[in-house]
Design a protein that fits this description.
Layout (H helix, E strand, L loop, with lengths): L1 H4 L6 H6 L14 E5 L3 H12 L5 E2 L13 H8 L2 E6 L13 H5 L7 E4 L12 E2 L15 E2 H8 L12 H22 L5 H7 L4 E3 L2 E2 L1 H15 L16 E2 L4 H6 L14 E4 L2 E4 H14 L1 H10 L1 H6 L5
Helix pairs in contact: 3-9, 6-11, 6-12
């Protein structure tokens, strides 16, 4: 079970990390809030907590993909005390549990307020990067993302892959598709606006496709406070919130989008940065090709899910 989850649910260190959620640490006598969603949720909680200046307390909770059936009593206990909840749009019955947005909000007090923020993905700076899910299969090794150039090579039965950057037209097509998808999600679910924030952040919008920069996250936190009608200054926390893994960002990609190389903090890079260490694209591609050979269902799932983007950036299966 732990291998499937990617974490050990009963690890004492993990439970201590979420001590308030699990009742191991006493909650303060103050208005409470929680942020429900994927890995982006905790970063927004940090920013909203800081903006409250002691007027409210944000409780750290596990991301939605880590919540288990045994966590539901803890979740219900917390929701019953929340003054407001920020949640990403999550389908009812997610992973067979009542963790959907509407199911969560139904457990809050009648005077509790709610704000929705979108699932944020931005491929403009990394046009060949994607997320793929296949039942019963965890993330690929080294870097938990999929490069569509490598995925297509695997589908063709190749043992090596050409990692040349895609064309300027393909970069812009990826940017346009990413913007379209994000705006569509925002409108469909009535969320605060993140798409404009990604556009305005330019070359510093994201570290990897689902890890927005501090600039974008701070903007979303401000949008949430505005929606709530709450005052508060969202301040930079003094650390990079979602910077533990950084994908390559090519100079040619920046040029295609109208940015200069020195517009990007740290400059363009042809390598990954994982846990502070540089890892070459070639090494990751080789690992992923071997992994795809073991899990061909991931290749099939990726080709189906990203058919439109694969075509848009000019890759041929």
């Amino acid at each position: 079970m732990a291998e499937e989850l990617g974490f050990e649910p009963h690890d004492p260190g993990r439970r201590a990390h979420y001590g308030e959620f699990y009742g191991l640490t006493e909650l303060p006598d103050a208005p409470l809030f929680m942020v429900h969603g994927n890995c982006q949720a905790e970063s927004l909680r940090v920013l909203l907590h800081g903006a409250g200046e002691g007027r409210w307390h944000g409780v750290r909770i596990p991301p939605v993909h880590e919540l288990l059936a045994e966590d539901l009593p803890h979740l219900t206990r917390l929701l019953n005390r929340c003054s407001f909840v920020a949640t990403q749009p999550i389908t009812s019955g997610y992973r067979g549990l009542p963790l959907g947005s509407e199911e969560i909000l139904a457990l809050t007090p009648s005077d509790s307020r709610a704000v929705k923020y979108p699932v944020m993905r931005w491929t403009a700076l990394m046009p060949t990067l994607a997320i793929v899910r296949a039942e019963g299969v965890t993330d690929p090794p080294v870097a938990p993302y999929h490069d569509l150039r490598v995925l297509v090579a695997a589908a063709q039965g190749k043992r090596t892959v050409n990692l040349e950057p895609v064309s300027a037209e393909a970069v812009r097509a990826s940017r346009d598709e990413s913007l379209h998808q994000l705006r569509t999600r925002q409108e469909a679910h009535g969320t605060v606006d993140a798409a404009s924030l990604f556009e305005s952040a330019g070359p510093n919008a994201a570290h990897v496709i689902n890890h927005p920069s501090n600039e974008v996250l701070m903007g979303v936190a401000r949008e949430i406070l505005s929606e709530l009608g709450e005052p508060g200054e969202v301040k930079d926390p003094g650390r990079v919130l979602l910077g533990g893994i950084r994908a390559p960002i090519y100079e040619s990609t920046l040029e295609a989008l109208g940015y200069r190389a020195d517009d990007l903090a740290g400059g363009p890079r042809n390598h990954w940065i994982i846990g502070g260490e540089k890892v070459s694209e070639e090494d990751i591609a080789a690992e992923h090709l071997r992994w795809y050979a073991q899990f061909p269902q991931v290749v099939a799932a990726g080709l189906k899910r990203h058919e439109r983007l694969i075509s848009a950036i000019g890759l041929t299966v």
